[in-house]
Specification:
The complex is a heterodimer. Chain A is mainly α. Chain A has helices at about 5-35, 55-60, 65-95, 100-115, 115-125, 135-140, 155-165, 170-180, 185-190, 195-225, 230-235, 245-255, 260-290; strands at about 40, 50. Chain A is built from 13 helices and two strands, in the order αββαααααααααααα. By secondary structure, chain B is an alpha/beta fold. Chain B has helices at about 1-30, 45-60, 70-85, 110-115, 125-130, 155-160, 170-180, 200-205, 225-240, 245-250, 260-265, 275-280, 320-330, 330-340, 350, 360-370, 375-380, 385-390, 395-400, 410-430, and strands spanning about 30-40, 65-70, 90-95, 130-135, 135, 140-145, 150, 190, 265-270, 285-290, 300, 305-310, 375. The chains are: A mainly alpha, B alpha/beta.
């Protein structure tokens, strides 16, 4: 390494150091602590007691709530993830049209993405109120008796999914950025060659948008597994544990049941699940993500 | 030259000694500063908190109280973090989570040997159930509350229904609720209970979800008294006289009871608390207070609570902290808080008698409720009750609330809860005791 390179390296590390310090304190240390506590029984006020693999044994062999929460979370991911990806893309295509007032539309659709989860939850409680809510009132005009939504065994989870889809404007803005990066001359050339609108979307837009889709898939995947606020504010995991999401279970164990050790094991399990799903997506991306360079 | 040097050294040393003495003197006069974390609300508004501190500091010029008033959520986070870390806990704090209690100072000897204060001044039920832990006094009680049924007299008069009495039964509750139901006025008769095995369940004879020795769920969660209580719930839900959980979520007040619906006259009866009583009073609603209904012959139970203020066991100023604690939780501080915060109800019976509305019928009803046996008397020694076991058997509750089972399926539904309930108990007891 030349003296100049050493100086550059020093400058680089110096510039990185604030982030590195933050990473060690706020990420690395808590993760390592979580790993340690997952092998302990810990009620906060008393010192942790080493229990080895007992928390994991309980999780995999004798905890029905673990199964319930995993099932509810997986179902939510299966419903909300593809829906959000498709609707986000469709919305982005609409927001990419050149019509008057488009900036206003973009802002309107983006707003839900920046409202706090609790406020959104409270708003949806009103929207989906079975008796006086906007949705059921509208349905009643067509002679349809709307469901109980959050308070219906079969509709509670789809209701939460609908809520999360409502925030699709955030994803649409990312897609929009991707769409606007696609060179216009490709569309012009395709048009001259007589390609239909569908053909242009299928042959140009979608392939060139795959890096954005890839990014969005990973972000939405992680986000979907971390579903919590809606269960905490609206459904409290019910009815009949239909919305008893994994993170909500983790929260109850840690902060209501004073079971920090087991909660740490749950947190680690979720980390592994999310990591595995992400690695799987990344591995498969070579087959479907197209980079121009 | 040497002599001049030594003179200078001597002079400097003298100066240094003088400085030390003066610093020491100043230190002796410096007041001790106590740290105190608290929250504020309508039961203890910030000005009232500061007035209590000012009154205390005027009496104790050597002690200053550095108070941090924060939101409840932030308080819980900070306190949990400090407790877990074992450092940074303030000298004085609310120990409302049972998990924090091992970090509280044992106050038994101080309380029993202090001529200024005695445990006898406090309401016995609240004292024994809320600040005695493992036979130690770990805090002093402050601001008590309880659940009771409030009834809207105007609604009753409107529907021509007689007011409930002190000795009414669960069946009376259903009948009255049905009589008050008025679909034209979008009015319900009464609310639904918020969970099993609270005071109402006990008033129906279903005392515990598991055995006293915390070993057995079979015969308790699915015992005849429990089945009777859950069947009563089924009847109440089936009557159509109560708002659904969805209605309550939207129109009620989450967690603390549907006071908004009650005040609006859309709910004839509601199980509420002292804060609701004050809100209703301020809204000008004509109301009464009765205990939760009870099957004749059963003990009278109440779901009550008290906040508890304690001293951190590693406090560097336990004596000064005790001085403040007994001022704050004793008659001087509690009187200021009661007079300046209408929703503040001290745990001291002699002070409760001085309350602004002490002569009213509803307040006397409230005092009557306080004398019932507290559910906490069982719960405080059975910490697995809430976090583990009730969560494990929650499905039975949901099924009835959703109208998903028939009346004759209640027994079988509760039988099916034995296994998850037992599993939850077996997991929890080795960890939290009971």
């Amino acid at each position: 390494m030349t003296p100049q390179e050493r100086r550059d390296a020093k400058t680089g590390y110096l510039a990185l150091s604030p982030w590195m310090v933050g990473f060690v304190i706020f990420y690395a240390f808590p993760i390592i602590a979580t790993i340690y506590f997952s092998f302990n029984e810990w009620t906060l006020a008393e010192p942790p007691i080493w229990v080895g693999l007992d928390n994991y044994a309980r999780m995999f062999t004798r905890d029905p709530l673990f199964v319930s929460s995993l099932r509810a979370t997986t179902l939510f991911v299966i419903i909300s993830l593809p829906t959000k990806l498709v609707l986000g893309l469709m919305l982005a295509l609409l927001l990419n049209l050149k019509i008057p007032g488009m900036n206003a539309f973009r802002t309107i659709f983006f707003i839900p993405a920046v409202i706090s989860g609790v406020a959104v939850s409270l708003m949806w409680i009103w929207f989906l109120n079975p008796d006086t809510g906007v949705v059921n009132t509208l349905l009643s005009y067509f002679g349809i008796r709307g469901p109980l939504w959050f308070w219906d065994l079969h509709w509670a989870l789809p209701s939460v999914a609908i809520m999360s889809i409502w925030k699709v404007g955030g994803a649409a803005i990312i897609y929009l950025a991707g769409l606007q990066n696609i060179p216009a001359q490709l569309y012009e050339a395709a048009e001259i060659d007589g390609a239909s609108k569908w053909g242009r979307f299928w042959r140009i837009t979608l392939p060139l948008l795959t890096p954005t889709l890839f990014f969005q898939l990973i972000i939405e995947l992680i986000d979907a597994f971390k579903i919590f606020t809606e269960a905490y504010v609206i459904t409290h995991g019910g009815p009949l544990k239909s919305t008893y999401f994994f993170l909500y279970y983790f929260y109850e164990e840690a902060f209501r049941n004073a079971n920090m050790g087991y909660a740490s094991a749950l947190a680690l399990f979720l980390l592994v699940v999310i990591l595995s799903a992400t690695v799987f997506v990344v591995r498969t991306s070579k087959g479907w993500v197209y980079y121009e360079n | 030259m040497k002599s001049a040097f030594f003179k200078n050294v001597l002079a400097l040393a003298n100066l240094f000694m003088l400085l030390l003495v003066s610093i020491g003197g100043a230190a002796a006069q410096d007041p001790v500063t106590l740290t105190w974390w608290t929250t504020s609300g309508r039961d203890s508004p910030e000005p009232a908190i500061r007035n209590v501190i000012a009154a205390f500091e005027a009496e104790h010029p050597n002690i200053k109280v550095d108070v941090s008033i924060m939101a409840e959520g932030a308080y819980n986070d900070l306190m949990s973090t400090a407790i877990a870390a074992g450092e940074g806990v303030p000298d004085l704090a609310w120990y409302w989570s049972n998990n924090w209690l091992p970090q509280a100072l044992d106050l038994t000897d101080r309380l029993d040997n202090d001529p200024d204060i005695s445990r006898d001044i406090f309401h016995t039920e609240y004292f024994n159930n809320w600040v005695v832990w493992n036979d130690m006094v770990i805090a002093l009680p402050y601001d008590i509350g309880a659940n009771f049924v409030m009834y809207n007299k105007d609604v009753f008069d409107d529907e021509g229904v007689a007011y409930p009495t002190q000795d009414w039964t669960p069946q009376d509750y259903i009948e009255i609720a049905k009589a008050l139901r008025n679909e034209d006025k979008r009015r319900w008769g009464g609310d639904r209970p918020r969970g099993p095995f609270r005071a109402l369940w006990r008033n129906m004879g279903a005392t515990n979800p598991y055995s006293d020795d915390s070993t057995t769920v079979e015969g308790y969660i699915n015992g005849p008294e429990s089945v009777a209580a859950y069947t009563w719930l089924w009847d109440l839900v089936d009557s159509g006289a109560t708002p659904t959980p969805a209605d309550l979520e939207v129109l009620g007040t989450e967690g603390t009871g549907p006071v908004d619906l009650f005040i609006a006259g859309r709910l004839g009866m509601a199980t509420l608390n002292p804060g609701s009583m004050v809100s209703t009073l301020e809204a000008g609603v004509n109301f009464g207070v009765v205990p939760e209904p009870r099957v004749p012959g059963n003990e009278n139970w109440v779901h009550g609570w008290a906040l508890r203020a304690g001293i951190w066991k590693n406090s560097e100023h336990p004596d000064e902290a005790w001085e403040f604690l007994k001022f704050w939780n004793g008659p001087p501080g509690q009187r200021i808080l009661m007079e300046q915060g209408l929703g503040h109800f001290p745990p001291i019976p002699s002070l409760l008698a001085e309350y602004e509305y002490a002569d009213t019928e509803w307040y006397q009803g409230f005092l009557n409720v306080l004398d019932a046996t507290q559910t906490a008397s069982w719960r405080k020694d059975h910490p697995c009750w809430r976090g583990a076991v009730i969560r494990g058997v929650r499905d039975a509750w949901d099924l009835i609330m959703l109208g998903e089972i028939e009346r004759d399926e209640v027994q079988a539904t509760l039988d099916a809860m034995v296994e998850p309930g037992q599993a939850a108990l077996d997991e929890c007891v080795p960890r939290l005791g009971g």
